Amino acid sequence: MASSQILLQRFVIPQNPISKVGFVSCCPTSRLGYGNTPFTSISWSHSIQKHRAGFAVRAESEPQENAQNVEQEAPPIDVEEEQEKEKEVSESKPARKPRVKLGDIMGILHKRAIEASEKERATPDIRTGDIVEIKLEVPENKRRLSIYKGIVISRQNSGIHTTIRIRRIIAGVGVEIVFPVYSPNIKEIKVVNHRKVRRARLYYLRHKLPRLSTFK
User: Fold this and answer.
1) 165: part of which helix (H) or strand (E)?
2) In sequence order, which residues have a C-beta less than 8 Å from that of residue 161 and are 6 or more positions away?
């Protein structure tokens, strides 16, 4: 009796699901030889075993573009919406105030005090060599105003504490008085005459003739 045998096939399945599966043609393991020997069941089975067919499976990888398309596509980003959100956030934040350094605090306070004093009484530009007339209020008697007239021999700038020194000859004696420019007791400062001088301090007038410091 002739025995039949089933041809065995070998498959190799790729692990990558993206790759394609291709089949290779059947390749005989050996050639069928014919001889003068008679066919029997044993010889028939032996010849079939020699001519078993082998099948191989080959996986073909797809290009990278197809593999990337399989992945989940990210949602498109709208640039205009992001810019609008950034603008809204920047507008909602209040503007940062400039920092004030410790050294500038006194300068700011002096500036504010000078502005408040000028609102109550206008202060003229007083320079060294000017002849000025000052009306000073006496604290003991507010109804009486003392008038002082003289030449400015020096000026010391120190913010709200700025002072001027006035010199005048009274009864043959030289008198010098220091007045704070922004004092609330001074009701009026009037520049009678401007004189051009070359020095910032006219202390040399103390040793000059009295007529240079005498005024009507």
Assistant:
1) strand 163-170
2) 180, 182
